[in-house]
Design a protein that fits this description.
The complex is a heterodimer of chains A (about 325) and B (about 80). By secondary structure, chain A is an alpha/beta fold. Helix content of chain A is about 35%, strand content about 25%. Chain A has one domain: 3-Layer(aba) Sandwich (Peroxisomal Thiolase, Chain A, domain 1), CATH 3.40.47. Chain A starts with a strand and ends in a 7-residue tail after the last strand. Chain B is globular, with a radius of gyration of 12 Å. The chains are: A alpha/beta (about 325), B mainly alpha (about 80). The interface between A and B is medium-sized, with 12 and 13 residues.
């Protein structure tokens, strides 16, 4: 039976032009192309040039998504949600700036901070607003500029993270339409908040001690996170599939957060999905956090991997800890 | 009441050889350290064993166990207390 749902109508992606291959990093720190590829699956990443901030990437990806939207018409969008861990500033949020620069007027605009799960949380936020009738059409952007937050002395993060942005447009529709967000599953575990983060300008470090130089940088206990990532994404995937009434064998494509190829392969093993159904884009862009799922969607769509009505499982995991999954069907989309 | 499962060393060895690139001739009492495994393999093995036997095992515990046989004993012990 058909019910109200958010429906995907447009898709856009943007990565800054500067490509940073593993060889370049191996000249700067104790690492090698072989080490990085074996442990992460990453061959290169894109880093924004000095002077480029997250909103700049978000505006470009948002512009492309709006151009690709079937319904067209920039003025139709009445809500903008930007998922990011690397906003232009701590305050104000990045989304109002993105909305203004896309000439969307005085629309509702907010940031969602859910780490690498940001896009799924933002998709859920916008979908809920559309289904509730609080908005008619939404732009959801995942955008990150991680390069300035990477500690050049920490090879555990410096080789992994990249910059980029991906965006989708959504409209209010029904669940039987191609492109419908069927359902989502979201979760978190704050008891493990210290496994990954950026102390930065937060009230906790500011109220308890003098700022430390490393506070500006991302830290991550990657080995501890690995098993949590696999287990939580597998559990959340199973939960969202159960809610959607889909058997795992009916899923055409699994679009997992592109954190580490080994995590994606382990996820496939846990779900009982062959690797051919995994969408993998990490080799080209690294871990782009909240941007990773829409970037992977755009890459696969551009290569013609998705067919109308294909069933997609999106699943992500990251800082918080937070995780989430979404079940969507693939619409008719022409990339800008 | 307990749900003790006796995990055979061969079962752990089978997971290791099926999913990971370990040398031919690897046995239940082969030291993990001699297999030239990278730092993620035991974490991945722990994820599989955790799902398969329903008890939480992590990579550090498997590294401390050191062999497939001792890993099997560890998982058996955990199932006895689950």
């Amino acid at each position: 039976m058909s019910r109200p749902a958010a429906v995907l109508t447009g898709l856009g992606a943007y990565v800054p032009p500067r490509t940073v291959p593993n060889e370049e990093l191996s000249r700067r720190m104790d690492t090698s192309d072989e080490w990085i590829v074996q442990r992460t699956g990453i061959s290169q990443r894109h880093w924004a040039d000095p002077g480029v901030a997250t909103s700049d990437l978000a505006v470009e990806a948002g512009h492309r998504a709006l151009k690709s939207a079937v319904s067209g018409g920039f003025g139709d969008i009445d809500m903008v949600v930007v998922a990011t861990t690397t906003p232009d500033q701590q305050c104000p949020a990045t989304a109002p700036d993105v909305a203004a620069r896309l000439d969307l007027g005085t629309v509702a605009a907010l940031d969602v901070a859910a780490g690498c799960t940001g896009f799924v949380y933002a998709l859920a936020t916008a979908s809920a607003a559309l289904v509730a009738g609080y908005a008619e059409r939404a732009l959801v952007v995942g955008a990150e500029t991680f390069h300035p937050f990477l500690n050049p002395a920490d090879r555990g993060t410096a080789v992994i993270f990249g910059d980029g942005a991906g965006a989708v447009t959504l409209r209010r529709g029904t669940s039987d339409e191609a492109g419908a967000v069927q359902t989502v599953d979201l979760g978190s575990d704050g008891t493990l908040k210290d496994l990954v983060g950026i102390p930065g300008n937060g009230s906790r470090p500011r109220s308890t001690r003098p700022m430390q130089p490393d506070d500006q940088y991302l830290y991550m206990h990657g080995k501890e996170i690995f098993a949590h990532a696999v287990n939580r994404m597998a559990q959340s995937s199973s939960a969202v599939l159960a809610k959607a009434g889909w058997d795992v064998d009916e899923v055409d494509h699994v679009v997992g957060h592109q954190a580490n190829l080994r995590i994606l392969h382990a996820l496939a093993r846990e779900l009982g999905v062959d690797r051919e159904r995994l969408v993998c884009h990490i080799d080209q862009v690294g871990n782009t956090s909240a941007a990773s799922i829409p970037l992977a969607l755009a890459d696969a769509a551009a290569k013609g991997h998705f067919q109308l009505h294909d069933r997609l499982l999106l699943t992500a995991f990251g800082a918080g800890l937070a995780w989430g999954s979404a079940a969507i069907t693939w619409p008719e989309i022409t990339l800008a | 009441m307990t749900s003790h499962i006796s995990v055979q060393p061969e079962a752990v060895l089978d997971v290791l050889t099926t999913h990971f690139d370990v040398p031919a001739g690897t046995a239940a009492d082969t030291d993990f350290q001699s297999l030239d495994l990278d730092s993620l393999v035991l974490i991945e093995l722990a994820v599989i064993l955790t799902r398969k036997y329903g008890v939480e095992v992590d990579g550090k515990e498997l590294a401390a166990a050191g062999t497939a046989a001792k890993a099997a004993a560890l998982v058996s012990e955990k199932t006895a207390h689950s």
